[in-house]
């Protein structure tokens, strides 16, 4: 497949993940509580693994081991900090009964987040297909628990289930728009900076947004499950890197 096709297919599949929220309708609340935080822990590991094992090394290969790479990493970190601060956006990884208000604000902020994610993953594909795939996998692992939480917020905020799924999917389509935007820009400009920028955003989401959700677990057994899920995410991305290099 061409790079453009990878970007299009990746964008469509990522947008389709928004429909996973529908499973909250059939799952018992206790079951949902049991699976959400291990998924969050797995996502935090995959995001950090993708940033450290794939994206930053790929950026160094493309740009050189210069301060510019790390400036873009910090810029990505700061951009998502600003997104959370000024749009009051925060991933929700709780069971649906623990919801936040302002459902439209959640959709708008999530759409912006997905657009930036599309830019980032597309930039990774433009540098290297293997880096693009690993970046996509990490982003997808993170989207699953997020979409479960977002759908629960919309439904418990008074939205009909069909309407909540439809709007959540429309919000997720901005990922594809971001990917196509990055591809179009790349035809005239160097977009390799998007990869370290994305790495910084992945580090922020994992360290500031996801890990705080799981580290407050009081049960030793549940805490061990979350830590092992986190390690699994890291090892998965490390394994992909080893296979790609062999």
Brief overview:
The chain is mainly alpha-helical and 246 residues long. The chain has 9 helices and no strands.
Question: Could you characterize the architecture of this molecule?
Answer:
This protein is mainly α and 246 residues long. The chain has one domain. The chain is 79% helix and 0% strand. The protein contains nine helices and no strands. The protein is globular and about 50 Å long. The two termini are 22 Å apart.
Key terms:
globular; mainly alpha; 79% helix
- Average pLDDT, rounded to a whole number, is 83
Q: Spans with pLDDT under 50 lasting ≥5 residues?
A: 92-101
Tally of domains: 1
Portion in helices = over 70%
User: Total number of β-strand segments?
Assistant: 0
- In terms of structural class, how would the helical and strand content be classed? mainly alpha
In angstroms, what is the radius of gyration? Answer: 17 Å
What's the story with the biggest beta sheet? Answer: none
Counting H and I runs of at least 4 residues, what is the number of helices?
Answer: 9
N-end to C-end Cα span = 22 Å
% residues in beta strands: under 5%
Gross geometry: globular
The string of secondary-structure elements, in order, is: HHHHHHHHH
